[in-house]
TrEMBL record:
Organism, scientific name: Hymenobacter cellulosivorans
Protein's name according to its UniProt entry: Glycosyltransferase RgtA/B/C/D-like domain-containing protein
Keywords annotated in UniProt: Membrane, Transmembrane, Transmembrane helix
Any coiled-coil regions, as ranges: none
Keyword presence, Transmembrane helix: yes
Domain of life the protein comes from: Bacteria
Classification lineage: Bacteria, Pseudomonadati, Bacteroidota, Cytophagia, Cytophagales
Regions that span the bilayer: 97-114, 121-142, 148-166, 197-216, 223-243, 302-321, 342-367, 387-405, 412-431
Length: 563
């Protein structure tokens, strides 16, 4: 009796600890990426009545900025952020809350996703499963706002799908499952609101339900058809929004490129088979973070290549042996309906194949982009690690379930290999990134370099100025140097960043009515004669000194030129 009571309690405590560990990791090392900044800008403009858009400078009339609809992402993140900004005193706090909510939703989804499998795993399996995810860098490395917030509802939909397929007979007689099927499609659509890449995954949910209902359980056919119709209506409304409001769905209707000689709408279509040579090592990255630094080792690149091939081979053996044994065990019992574990493996691996297949299709179809921020400056979809997040989650989960299965489905030597790979993954996480998390979690959160003593006060003063400047309208924010923290604050307030070179290149400045400009002047270096003359001409006045940020904000007004 003691064992029956203690293991469920232990598993719940371990789940709570895993959530806290992931939250602590996000608090210590928050990600405020360019993608999230841009979507937050569009949320600010939404609150100002300009829709989900990004403001651009109108050089023909500075007083009438151009609001371009945001087409790089669906509007879901901007809608959520706009709601949070109405109650949150800080953009950065709202961003952190979004991350925490996404992590909690993702882990809760997997708690319920694994629930039908618990009788076929060791009693302490949930504790081991979630503590591994709570401590390990992989498969959670490179989590960003929309990646996390899309994966969480999709996994929730996957949990409902597995629930519908594994319901006991008594429950099936009481309910046809319409509510769960419609909720499943709604969660799939929520993922589509965050990322375009979840369109095929969202439709996989009702189509898989329909397939299993048609083949094995006829009572599931009608709920599956209702769920498919509901999702089709929801996605059609989103497609209509993208076409009529945003103009297009960038990553689906155009190719991402930064080639100066090749506009995105003129990318040459073809079959670029050589791009597959850049395929991310997904089996390796499902268990080992891509942040491991091999460069400090002698022949570090060769060591990394050896580790990738070794881990990938071991994971392939684990999957091949474990899944073949699961299949033979189900056939040996003469089951026509798949076992619960086989259903789980099928759903997880189908998710991985669909995600990878979409990236392969895009990579084969479009030329590579030459971008400075990517390794070797040669980018294509299958080369970008973070795009494989659903694949990493699926493979990691399948490996954990195989290792924790009861009775064991892996031969003892293979199971030992699996435990060794998981142990090595966890050990490397503990001595690298998790060690830094422990060092930082009890300090002030590192929100965009706000850790220098006295700096938070300056950041608050800067944010207060930017929130109130211009009575809620976009303000021109000029600068004669690059200050990352000031730029982040200005962009998150929805203002328009202008470099001094751009200002001087468009002289004389045109405006139909007076325009407010805040100018960030570098106090640590003398201004050029052109900047001095510009500030004198427009009678710039000191507005705010920020010594810890190394910035001096001036206020000036650009007036219409007399005819």
């Amino acid at each position: 009796m003691t064992q029956k009571v203690s293991w469920p309690l232990l598993n719940r405590l371990a789940f709570g600890l895993a959530v806290l560990l992931r939250w602590a990791h996000e608090l210590a090392m928050p990600q405020l990426t360019r993608d999230m900044q841009t979507q937050t800008e569009s949320a600010v403009n939404l609150l100002r009545g300009h829709g989900v858009s990004v403001a651009r400078v109108n050089w023909q009339d500075l007083s009438q900025p151009i609001f371009e609809p945001l087409n790089l992402w669906p509007p879901g993140y901007a809608w959520l952020m706009a709601g949070l900004l109405q109650i949150s005193p800080s953009v950065l706090l709202a961003t952190q809350l979004m991350h925490w909510a996404g992590l909690l939703g993702l882990l809760l989804a997997w708690w319920y996703l694994l629930k039908p499998l618990r009788p076929s795993m060791v009693p302490w399996a949930p504790a081991a499963f979630f503590l591994f995810w709570g401590l390990s860098n992989a498969p959670f490395h490179l989590l960003f706002g929309t990646d996390l917030l899309a994966l969480a509802p999709y996994c929730g939909g996957l949990a409902l799908l597995l629930h519908l397929l594994t319901r006991p007979a008594a429950v099936r007689r009481q309910s046809a499952g319409y509510a769960a099927a419609l909720a499943m499609s709604s969660l799939g659509f929520a993922a589509c609101l965050m990322r375009f890449a979840y369109y095929p995954l969202a439709f996989f949910l009702p189509l898989a339900l329909l397939l299993f209902g048609w083949r094995w359980r006829p009572p599931l056919r009608r709920p599956a058809l209702a769920a498919l119709l509901w999702l089709t209506l929801l996605v059609a409304s989103l497609v209509l929004y993208q076409a009529r409001v945003a103009g297009d769905a960038y990553y689906l209707t155009q190719f991402y490129t930064q080639l100066a000689t090749e506009p995105a709408n003129r990318a040459t279509l073809g079959l670029y088979w050589h791009h597959l040579r850049l395929f991310d090592p997904v089996f390796y990255h499902s268990l080992f973070s891509n942040e491991l630094d091999f460069s400090r080792l002698p022949q570090g690149q060769l060591v990394r290549m050896g580790a990738v091939w070794l881990v990938s081979g071991l994971v392939t053996v684990l999957l091949a042996v474990g899944l073949s044994r699961e299949w033979r065990a189900a056939r040996h019992r003469g089951r026509i309906w798949p076992t619960r574990r086989l259903l789980f493996y099928a759903l997880a691996l189908a998710t991985a194949l669909l995600s990878a297949g979409l990236l392969v299709a895009f990579s084969l179809r479009y030329p590579a982009a030459l971008v400075g921020w990517f390794a070797n400056a040669y980018w294509t979809y299958v080369a970008d690690t973070r795009y494989f997040l659903p694949v990493f989650i699926s493979i990691s989960a399948v490996v954990l379930v195989l290792v924790l299965a009861r009775p064991p489905r892996l031969p003892a030597p293979v199971r030992l290999l699996g435990l060794s790979v998981l142990g090595a993954s966890l050990l490397l996480s503990l001595v690298t990134r998790d060690r830094r998390t422990i060092q930082l979690v009890f300090q002030q959160p590192n929100f965009s370099i706000d850790k220098v003593p006295g700096q938070p006060a300056d950041v608050r003063r800067l944010d207060s100025l930017l929130r109130t400047a211009g009575a809620g309208q976009p303000v021109l924010f000029g600068r004669n140097y690059y200050n990352k923290r000031v730029e982040i604050a200005a962009r998150l307030a929805g203002h328009l960043i202008l470099d001094a070179d751009s200002l001087f290149a468009h002289q004389p400045l045109r405006t139909s009515r007076p325009v407010l400009m805040l100018f960030d002047l570098n106090p640590n270096a003398p201004a050029s004669p052109a900047v001095v003359e510009f500030l004198r001409q427009h009678r710039a006045q000191p507005q705010l000194g920020l010594p810890t940020l190394g910035a001096q904000i001036l206020r000036l007004e650009i007036r219409p030129k007399s005819p």
